[in-house]
């Protein structure tokens, strides 16, 4: 027995997403079946749909910023009950026995986590060898990988917290950003706008670092205290050696040297966006003030829950534009042009329209 | 009044070093005058003599790995007495009032430390606007920048501790290398051979990472437990995700990606040699295991003293080849060809030969 699901898939890297019917597994004892209400549109969805990173399998149903309500549960499920508002992020499984999984850092699973879409499905129970994501009406997920969503927030606007939110929250927490610190958020998109909100909520003095004066003004509305235009060489020079932490959300390869110089001695810049070659990196900028550059990948399940609870307490959600699923292909084009503030979210009720 | 000194200088980036007569300042209250016994030959000396980094001033007397005996002291000197065995490293002054100086991290002085040679001399007292280094018979230095050298060690072989030693000791200590850790030392030269000795003495399992099987064998004699040939793609792949720390002593720009992949989750590679553009650096290697790359510059005066004391306790010195000052120009050529195990040290008695 399986559950019939409907959604949108792409069958070819060069083609649009189209309606698609497929299977979800019947819940095992520890599984939760979720009626999906909303799914955010992450730039990764586009890279995967178009096979821009290689390795995509088709048909491909994107979506890893999922919010919905529990429709049914397996008998061993202890964390959730029918009707609960829940979320699923970038992972639906991991090895569960390596050192990273034991620490709740499933994103760094030594044996590789299972992505919410396009991942090799080790649990099985359907005819599909690869996982299908959240551009669909329902999903079956092991409760370990299901998150509780605060009921006091706008549900649609919480969905991008599951990827854009945790990707920025995790490094800010790991590197202990807080009051008294000057923190720069580089780039204002889906990730950057959440970085500004979180760093502000954590009590830091937040500087938006951007090429665009208008983005700078937008960032101030989100909580940034100051704006630093990276195109202003004199301003960049004046701000050298002044930052306690930098969160770099630039999504492509770039010259990191001008940003590294902004760091104080012993400070760190964390890259969360650019999973490709950095065009310039000079050792001297690291050596002369013992600076560090690090990377960070989403966050583990316990920390994702912590982030969602933090958002509930601080009334933090993403700034979104809601779309119908039928608008997804146009939304991809607009996302590529950065023509969205700051995330599209699919209202999944439109699937049945 | 000044002190007459003799040494070797270069007067032009394209010319050899030749005998040179100049002035040292008379000791102020807090100054120590040192009769130089030995001076190590650092690759930086060559870069500076030949103006390969730009900004060199001529005449230039190189040398910042100085060991000698106290000849006289100013009346306020409290740390040293006449006859003490002492050393001077890369710095002879700093602003002494910034946050870094207050922490004893003069190498990161916010206002710039004064290099032992070629630095703008803020103290003055001679006709020379720039500092002159250790390829000479004597030097006058503020006691804050003078180190105590353990008497139980071979004095000539201690001189490179003042640069090559502290440059490798400082990051190993700062990143808390110790027992139970697998530590890779990348590159076996003046810096790398000290990295092996220190990491071994600190109790780590030491892996020499080199392109050269014969250097690997040499490293084992210095304390390395294993050798990893960076040219062996299969071996490099097998060792991915296994290192707790990497000390990268490669002195030129290079592709850091294969080394970054060797690091475990949350581990750090520290660059101490390459003060130039790194040719390849891919963000994905940082992001997927939250790895870091950092830099580190020599060490502060208190930590340099700690390192020298550690060497005294553990009987650690550099492996050196002693030369007469008249052989300095040939020694430069051999250093450039890595034809030295692992540091030339000038016996300054030969100055008067």
Distance between the termini of chain A: 27 Å
Total number of β-strand segments of chain A?
17
Order of helices and strands of chain A: EEEHEEEHEEEHHEHEHEHEHEHEHEHE
Strand content of chain A: 25-35%
Number of helices of chain A: 11
Could you list the spans of chain A in which at least 5 consecutive residues all have pLDDT below 50?
none
Largest interface: A-B, 36 and 36 residues
- Could you please say which CATH topology of the largest domain in chain A applies here? Quinone Oxidoreductase, Chain A, domain 1
Shape of chain A: globular
- In CATH, what is the class of the largest domain in chain A? Alpha Beta
Helix and strand composition category of chain A: alpha/beta
Going by CATH, the homologous superfamily of the largest domain in chain A would be Medium-chain alcohol dehydrogenases, catalytic domain
